[in-house]
Input
Amino acid sequence: MVQNTPDSTVREQDTERTSSPKQILRSSRDLARLCARSAEEKKCTDIIAIDISAIDGAPADWFVLATCASEQQIRAVAEYIEQQTASASVPAPRTEGWEALQWVILDYFDVVVHLMRVEARSFYKLESLWGDGLFFVLSADGRLIRQRHSH
Output
């Protein structure tokens, strides 16, 4: 499990630039970034990381949302994220949604990844439900960049 520490802000800045295949994840933000980058590598679209840690009752610190074009892509992306996180020594997530492959959830406790087909993402509107969170997108070099979100 990734743990947040009082000095995690400094560590997050240091690890933003890490590009080694065996990353050391020092915060839930690092894990969210790794998951978002992995989804991007597998050609997901509309990738957003939402910091929900300041919201009372939030089920995690971060959500990572990504849209997949097909059931095959959802399966491939989910498996790839699991491989990437395992190689970073992150324990295996709890998962849901493998039967229908319309919305697969990878729950790493402090980071929850939502891989969704377009229809499911439009219907459930998680961005609106968690609109009080801080929204981030990936920069060209793989960093999380704060984005304004209107809800």
